[in-house]
Amino acid sequence: MRARNFFKQGPPLAYGWYFIPVFVIALIGFGDSIYLAVSHYRNYVDMGYQSFCAISRSLNCDTVSQSPYSIFLNVPVPVWGIFGYGFFLFLLGVAWHPTAGRKRVWTLLFVISLAFSVYSVVLALISSYLIRSYCIMCILSYAVNLALLFYAWMIRKRFGCEPFASALVLDIRHLLNFKKTTIPVAAVFGVVGLAMMLAFPDYWHLSPPPLSAQTRTGVTAEGHPWIGAQHPKLEIVEFTDYMCFQCKKMHFFLRRLVDAHPDTLRLVHRHFPMDHEYNPFVKEPFHVGAGKLSLIALYAQTQEKFWEANDLLFTLGKADIKLKDVLNPLGLEVTGLADALENRGLERVLRQDIHDGLRIGITATPCYVIGDYAYVGTIPANIINEAIRR
């Protein structure tokens, strides 16, 4: 007897059961990209911003946004996401048209979603091995891209699309059937993409105001460098780490603020590298090399080049810089730095800054001491505003 087939394949679900999930998934990707683009922008321009997914060192959307890998072709990656998902949604509109016959455009959508997925894998590897931190909302976009790839593959298979190359040619011909719409829209996307690459505002390039002969600087009675007012209405003492992004962002913000109010505000700099080789509070490797960057700044101070070195070190913000990249622009000699480090005098100054910070209760950077109060991360706006209005 012939065995009965209990697993007969039923009729395929209606086209809408496949199309609608793809549309919803693409919308999720579009919305996720908008959130990530706004978050990326606020990371650089909003002094007190912290995203909801800045959870830990290894799971931190802000760390990913602050990395150089968040920029591709001079445009933030999430902005490319908005651009890409927008184009994908436009093509979905063409795929829904009755003349598409449940086949057309899906091969092209498969190619696009494959490109999205490959780039997602690249970004995931970068997060794992270079940034060493993950972004929850980025992981959501990876899932979206893989889901779009799976659905495009399934629809091609379910509704009997032609062999790949032939189907791709037929998809393009189908798009040209609506050339009064598709060609102008494609042209707009092309022009916008090119314009973004050529002229997108580079808000992520943080920089301080230039130092000039009119910029007042000095040293406190305790030997700490200051910039700003000779007799300030408000003195801000910053404890910072050259490898800390928030320190860099806040320092440049305060430098601009002091530059705008040179007779009101004074900024005093002190070192608090979160480097386990120098800071006893840090028990495991973290910001390795930040202590050495502080020593370079202290050496520059002995040569009356502190603020120039300070701005440069914050701009570079990494441990693997070459000494000549710092010392040459300042007109300083490597041999002079080597001699200064050998006598341990600079290290004693650095360790005193760290000791004073720990005594105050500092456990994170940046920290700002104003009078008897210490503020971690940022300074309440009302304190600065009151000083400026006085």
From TrEMBL:
Q: Name one GO cellular component term.
A: membrane
UniProt KW keywords? Disulfide bond, Membrane, Oxidoreductase, Quinone, Redox-active center, Transmembrane, Transmembrane helix
Cross-referenced InterPro entries: DSBA-like_thioredoxin_dom (IPR001853), Thioredoxin-like_sf (IPR036249), VKOR (IPR012932), VKOR_sf (IPR038354)
Domain of life from the UniProt record: Bacteria
**What is the membrane topology here?**
Multi-pass membrane protein
Q: Where are the transmembrane segments?
A: 12-38, 77-96, 105-125, 131-153, 183-204
**GO MF annotation terms:** oxidoreductase activity; quinone binding
Q: Where in the cell is it found?
A: Membrane
Per the database record, which ranges form the Vitamin K epoxide reductase domain?
Answer: 15-156
| Protein's UniProt keywords contain Zinc-finger | no
Family under the similarity heading: Belongs to the VKOR family.
* Name this polypeptide is given: Vitamin K epoxide reductase
The record lists the organism as: Desulfosudis oleivorans (strain DSM 6200 / JCM 39069 / Hxd3)
Q: What is the lineage of its organism?
A: Bacteria, Pseudomonadati, Thermodesulfobacteriota, Desulfobacteria, Desulfobacterales
